[in-house]
Design the sequence.
């Protein structure tokens, strides 16, 4: 049996919370495996198994009395989704080991690391093997699948023609996750399933609405003013995964509503800057990590008033 | 390099605390004395003045007379003038500047002057660089002060407490800033 999350006030246990996320994200893995082949399943399995083994090792070394809550499995799965589809087998193992043993083991204290372990593991891998991570490529529509060709034509002829708008080619591939090269991130091939998982988890109330809302707004509004390609930016890379799953991680996000808004706004703004002026690989994860570093400061500034604040000196 | 690039370069890629004076541990025990805002404000003013003095000496004296070899001497001369100034303003042993931190402050000023002085840019670009250096330094201070405050409440294994934990924290923070700087690397020079 898991213990209660301090950030949620209903009867959701951490075990049920993590299980819901694992179930919701499993279609993403399946869809990605359909698009990229069975090696995706090996990468995901290695990442989850490594994370679980490292967490078990940590619990035994610490003689932790708490029962496992499957959080490590979720972290392993999220890390795997952030990896390139053709990542070598040691990537998920090293990334998971760094995330659990170093970040959770050293900085996690009672099991709630103040910096997102998944993103820290991803940053460690990217710092070590930067060339293995793909650069963001502009949407050219040169490698459209048959599905995109037919569906775009049908939509333009039967739907968008009513409002005198034409959908350019390539966007449906992007939305469904088809036609990505082998260097693309695993999560990019499961965008449709990821959105479905997000809807399910939002309906269950497992996300604070402030994080995705303000993250999305502070990313999109400057992007529109800067003349960026909004649909391409939103549906490519790991933006959606960061927006809904990693920035909303209960252990590394602020506690108060004001803090959540500031945190999400900063992450969105930095993501916009990285995506607009950066030329290397997708750096949205770094934007979330940077705001993770500010969380202790944000929590101090936006803490809830307690009786201690009103006591006489 | 435009001003936006300078700000990001100084905050992320050339952050003084993390990339030039990594390991000057006197400050790492946490904030104390003057408030963070006051310290950053005083540092900003000092850095701006010293940068302007250095740029003026370099631009109007060393350059025209081909005395570039004396640039380091000019840095120390400027630094001495600045320290004398704030000593005169705040007293020889000001309470707001504990002696243990003087070394860091001086290093920061020297590093800042070197950093922005070596660019040989226009005076406005140099001043923007100085402000951006302060931004990076201030951001690093805010992050470290808050993170160490949070770590003091965590259940950390005994063998990691103290300097090992501080160094590992610095390493993790460096990983993030360096990565974000890497993401901007196409624009930074």
Sequence:
């Amino acid at each position: 049996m898991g213990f209660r999350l301090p950030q949620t006030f209903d009867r959701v246990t951490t075990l049920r919370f993590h299980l819901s996320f694992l179930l919701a994200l499993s279609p993403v893995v399946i869809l990605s495996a359909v698009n990229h082949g069975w090696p995706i399943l090996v990468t995901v399995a290695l990442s989850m198994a490594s994370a679980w083994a490292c967490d078990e090792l940590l619990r035994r070394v610490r003689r932790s009395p708490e029962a496992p809550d499957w959080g490590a499995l979720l972290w392993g799965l999220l890390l795997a989704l952030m990896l390139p589809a053709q990542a070598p087998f040691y990537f998920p193992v090293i990334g998971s080991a760094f995330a659990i043993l170093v970040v959770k083991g050293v900085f996690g204290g009672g099991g709630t690391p103040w910096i997102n372990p998944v993103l820290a593991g991803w940053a460690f891998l990217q710092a070590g093997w930067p060339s293995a991570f793909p650069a963001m490529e502009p949407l050219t529509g040169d490698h459209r699948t048959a599905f995109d060709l037919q569906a775009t034509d049908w939509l333009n002829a039967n739907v968008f023609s009513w409002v005198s708008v034409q959908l350019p080619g390539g966007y449906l591939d992007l939305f469904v996750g088809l036609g990505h090269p082998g260097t693309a991130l695993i999560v990019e091939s499961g965008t449709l399933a990821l959105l479905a998982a997000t809807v399910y988890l939002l309906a269950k109330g497992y996300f604070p609405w402030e994080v995705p809302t303000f993250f999305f707004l502070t990313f999109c509004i400057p992007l529109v003013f800067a003349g960026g390609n909004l649909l391409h930016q939103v549906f490519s890379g790991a933006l959606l995964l960061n927006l809904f799953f990693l920035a909303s991680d209960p252990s590394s996000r602020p506690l108060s509503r004001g803090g959540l808004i500031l945190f999400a706004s900063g992450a969105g703004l930095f993501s916009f800057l990285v995506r607009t002026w950066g030329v290397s690989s997708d750096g949205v994860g770094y934007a979330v990590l940077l705001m993770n570093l500010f969380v202790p400061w944000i929590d101090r500034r936006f803490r809830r008033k307690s009786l201690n604040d009103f006591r006489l000196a | 390099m435009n001003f936006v690039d300078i700000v990001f370069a100084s905050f992320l890629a050339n952050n003084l605390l993390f990339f030039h004076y990594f390991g000057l541990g006197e400050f790492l025990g946490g904030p104390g004395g003057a408030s963070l805002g006051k310290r950053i404000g005083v540092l900003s003013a000092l850095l701006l003045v010293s940068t302007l003095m250095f740029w003026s000496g370099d631009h109007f004296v060393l350059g025209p007379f081909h005395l570039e070899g004396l640039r380091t001497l000019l840095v120390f001369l400027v630094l001495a003038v600045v320290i004398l100034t704030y000593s005169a303003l705040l007293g020889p042993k000001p309470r707001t500047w504990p002696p243990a931190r003087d070394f860091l402050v001086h290093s920061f000023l020297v590093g800042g002057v070197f950093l922005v002085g070596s660019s040989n840019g226009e005076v406005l670009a140099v001043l923007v660089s100085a402000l951006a250096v302060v931004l990076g330094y201030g951001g690093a201070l805010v992050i470290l002060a808050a993170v160490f405050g949070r770590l003091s409440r965590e259940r950390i294994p005994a063998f990691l407490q103290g300097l090992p934990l501080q160094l590992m924290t610095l390493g993790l923070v460096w990983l993030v800033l360096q990565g974000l700087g890497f993401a901007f690397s196409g624009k930074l020079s």
Q: What stands out?
A: Residues 1-134+181-206 of chain A form one domain.
